[in-house]
């Protein structure tokens, strides 16, 4: 998807789907910019520049550099000289304005994990996040209402009880 120009001075951008959930599972608070990826981290108004401006991302060089490295001497603009359309130029101006408003500090960047209460990443929380919303809770009471033989109901009920004990 691309950045769409409505007028010469406004730019509305469409978002594309991310391949992984990592970026949507983290909240980046920009400090010195040393740990935060310029294009791929969600540091610019809560969004990643690659999501806000996918056409510019395609043109960019050195896509894995940090915010601190890219803000020095406007390194993030390298490669963008290949812009060919008015839409790309309008998106460049919009990104320029957003980047100019950024002030780095002496504090380190803070990356918080969204799926735990303390904000720390755990493999368990990442694993559980993959399945969030993919299945519903099962109530064992519906087993007894099923139209089947009593022994089938009984063994299904036992199976559910063992599963609940294993999870608890």
3D architecture notes:
With 168 residues, this protein is of the alpha+beta class. The chain folds into two domains: 3-113, no CATH class; 136-168. Helices cover 36% and strands 10% of the residues. The protein has seven helices and four strands. It has helices spanning 49-52, 54-59, 67-71, 86-100, 123-130, 141-144, 150-167; strands at residues 3-7, 10-13, 26-29, 110-113. The strands form two sheets. Strands 1-2 form a two-stranded antiparallel sheet. Strands 3-4 form a two-stranded antiparallel ribbon. β1 (3-7) and β2 (10-13) form a beta hairpin. The longest helix has 18 residues, at 150-167. The radius of gyration is 24 Å and the shape is elongated. The two termini are 44 Å apart. The model is unreliable at 1-21 (pLDDT under 50).
